[in-house]
Design brief:
- By secondary structure, this protein is of the alpha+beta class.
- The chain has one domain (about 5-100): CinA-like (Maf protein, Alpha-Beta Complex).
- The chain has three helices and three strands, in the order H-H-E-E-E-H.
- The protein has helices at about 5-10, 15-30, 80-100, and strands spanning about 35-40, 55-65, 70-75.
- It is globular and about 35 Å long.
């Protein structure tokens, strides 16, 4: 649906900067939205690894005018619901930055 290239997933995995950025760009391309945000991560309780631990989350936001944001957060193993709540707050902050016209 978002048009993420298979090569991105194969090379970087579902939880990565590249995947988050492809998700945000794909949502922008496939919709009439002026702003998009994407979140991909490992909320737990399991599924983490040494390279991608529980609590790792990648965010990407995109604006139709070409501005882009990426953030990586490592919340740690604070519990699935807390990781998700923190991720939502971060995503909304990123959208607010784009919506208020911050030049990135």
């Amino acid at each position: 649906m978002l048009g993420i290239p298979a090569a991105v997933l194969e090379r970087h995995g579902a939880v990565s900067r590249d995947t988050a950025e492809a998700m945000a760009a794909g949502a922008l391309a496939m919709s009439n939205a002026d702003l998009t945000v994407a979140i991909t991560g490992i909320a737990g309780p399991g599924g983490g690894s040494a390279e991608k631990p529980v609590g790792l989350v990648h965010f990407a936001a995109a604006a139709r005018d070409g501005r882009r944001l990426h953030r990586e957060k490592r919340y740690g193993d604070i519990g699935r619901s807390m990781v998700r709540a923190q991720a939502v707050a971060e995503a909304l902050t990123m959208l607010e930055l784009l919506a208020t016209g911050v030049r990135i």
